[in-house]
Specification:
Layout: E1 9-11, E2 14-16, E3 23-28, E4 33-39, H1 43-62, H2 65-81, H3 83-94, H4 98-119, E5 127-130, E6 133-141, E7 144-148, H5 154-167, E8 171-175, H6 182-193, E9 201-203, H7 208-216, E10 222-226, H8 229-240, E11 245-249, E12 255-258, H9 264-276, E13 288-292, H10 296-307, H11 328-343, E14 347-350, E15 365-368, H12 375-378, E16 385-391, H13 394-402, E17 409-413, H14 417-426, E18 431-434, E19 453-454, H15 461-465, E20 467-474
Parallel strand pairs: 7-8, 7-10, 8-9, 10-11, 12-13, 12-17, 13-16, 15-16, 17-18
Antiparallel strand pairs: 1-2, 3-4, 5-6, 6-20, 11-19, 14-15
Helix pairs in contact: 2-4, 2-6, 3-4, 4-5, 5-6, 9-10
The chain binds nicotinamide-adenine-dinucleotide (NAD).
């Protein structure tokens, strides 16, 4: 394998190993083979990472924003120069096809470093005149941030959390998912190559228990999680004990509403992007596709024609556009949901089976005639399973789309622009799409409402979640006290 990290952890500017930790084998999802060996952080490693990050933060925050930004932008350049090598590593970590990772993973990480690197020099406060007195505000770093990642976008998540945190003058200890531990280490290595002072961005490995130890440490000022709702609830509760700041990027069961005046080809394309990209392992996926009654047959026909052209196979072959699930465990979870869908009477119209080859490959799967009360319409599956539901009119579609605890994303396909904006305005979701699905440019805020999350990543919004405002009242005249 190319450019593999040389140890499990990256602390204080260097790779660190401690084989006393529980072994964490890295399994290539396309073959089931072990391609690397990592070790879970021991209490000593956790302590090293936290104390190092706390010590390094003050000096980093004292640098000018322009200087901090320059480091981030240099790291973005290095990532782009090494895109292919990093994309191959991402494919080993996740199993996602190279035809995706070459365009989406390291590149979106670089976008975040470039964007927040560019903003770092303009993080200013305000001057608020009050007659002869005045108030000024200072935007300050929070301090020591902990980032905890999911396994579907390991490079992107490491950068989406690291870039705004570092731009604002924070330090970070990042814990990737135990399923995909490799890519964040390369991000740390490249940040240091770009000139980041030792200790400002550290990566340690481990399962939830390492994450929990980081979250509960009193030195930590902020926790940013990308993960499931149950994990988010635990971390939010633990962080509340010390009033830590949080960003929660959690799961979803997002609706895509397709009206019968929509461009069919684009609507089918949107539904494919929203269900089968990264083998369906995307938090914002539109797993509830509401199709207006009159369009149902044409939609399903065109969908199955296009599904038949999917290139499923070796993720390293650039012609492949659909790869395996990330792990045996995730595949088993999805297979269980497919069985439940059939047991509860949904109509399986495509896929549904594990593929007859090595690795964790599941067919792209479509259920039609799904009803709102079915388990597959209510719970996040996090795999290549699309549920197609039908509706009669706009009000009904909106009410049913909102009938969920989640609120990450939502989409609408229609050629009636008035309706498109009206419907989006009434949908309870944080990241929405009109005649498109799953675009996530760094310039746009990303995040959920309801159980899907707290806070926003990307865009200028993220700055508010990695900094705080100090206000200073300045009196120019005498103080008038009552006695
Ligand atoms: P997960 O919740 O099982 O784990 C996420 C991370 O939290 C992992 O690093 C894990 O080790 C850690 N963790 C687990 N328990 C912990 C605890 N008690 N304390 C601290 N850390 C703990 O999620 P996953 O299976 O890795 O990822 C899939 C989930 O992530 C899905 O629900 C998906 O929707 C969500 N996700 C959300 C976004 C988003 O931006 N909203 C993006 C990607 C994935």
């Amino acid at each position: 394998m190319l450019a593999q990290p040389t140890a499990s952890h990256f602390i204080n500017g260097q790779y660190v190993e401690d084989t006393n930790g529980t072994p964490l084998p890295v399994i290539y999802p396309a073959t089931g083979e072990t391609v690397a060996q990592m070790y879970e952080a021991t209490p000593e490693i956790i302590e090293q990472a936290l104390s190092t990050a706390q010590a390094a933060q003050k000096e980093w925050a004292q640098r000018s924003g322009t200087e901090r930004g320059r480091v981030l932008r240099r790291a973005a350049d290095i990532i782009r120069e090494r895109n292919r090598e990093l994309s191959v590593l991402e494919t080993y970590d996740t199993g996602k096809p190279l035809s995706e990772t070459l365009y989406v993973d390291a590149t979106s990480g670089a976008d975040a470093l470039e964007y927040f690197g560019g903003l770092a020099g303009s993080l200013t406060g305000e001057h608020i005149p009050l007659g002869q007195d005045w108030v000024y505000t200072i935007r300050e770093a929070l301090g020591l941030c902990v980032g905890i990642g999911a396994w579907n976008y390991p490079t992107q998540i490491a950068c989406w959390k690291g870039a705004p945190a570092l731009a604002c003058g924070n330090s970070m200890v990042f814990k990737p998912s135990e399923t995909t531990p490799l890519c964040a280490l390369k991000v740390a290595e490249i940040l240091h190559e770009a000139g980041l002072p030792a200790g400002v961005y550290n990566v340690i490995q481990g399962t939830g228990s390492v994450g929990a130890a980081l979250v509960s440490d009193t030195r930590v000022d902020k926790v940013s999680l990308t993960g499931s709702v149950p994990t988010g609830k635990k971390i939010y509760a633990s962080a509340a004990a010390d009033m830590k700041h949080v960003t929660m990027e959690l799961g979803g069961k997002s609706p895509l509403i397709i009206f019968d005046d929509a461009d069919l080809e684009n609507a089918v394309g949107g539904a494919i992007l929203g269900n089968f990209y990264s083998s369906g392992q995307v938090c914002s996926n539109s797993t509830r596709v509401f199709v207006q009654e009159g369009l149902k047959d044409a939609f399903l026909k065109r969908l199955s024609e296009r599904l038949a052209t999917a290139q499923i196979g070796d993720p390293m072959d650039e012609a492949t556009n659909f790869g395996p699930m990330v792990s045996q465990n995730q595949m088993a979870i999805v297979q269980r949901y497919i069985q439940i869908g059939q047991d509860e009477g949904a109509n399986l119209v495509a896929g549904g089976k594990r593929m007859d080859r090595e690795g964790f490959f599941l067919e792209p799967t479509v259920f039609a005639d799904v009803t709102d009360d079915m388990t597959i319409a209510k719970e996040e599956i996090f795999g290549p399973v699309m549920s197609v539901l039908t509706f009669k009119d706009e009000d009904e579609a909106i009410a049913r789309a909102n009938e969920t605890e989640f609120g990450l994303s939502a989409g609408v396909f229609t050629n009636d622009m008035t309706r498109a904006h009206r419907v989006i305005g009434r949908l309870e979701a944080g990241s929405c799409f009109i005649n498109s699905y799953n675009d996530a440019p760094v310039e746009a805020p990303f995040g959920g409402v309801k159980a899907s999350g707290v806070g926003r990543e990307n865009s200028k919004e993220a700055i508010h979640h990695y900094s705080q405002v100090k206000s200073v009242y300045v009196r120019m005249g005498d103080v008038e006290a009552p006695f």
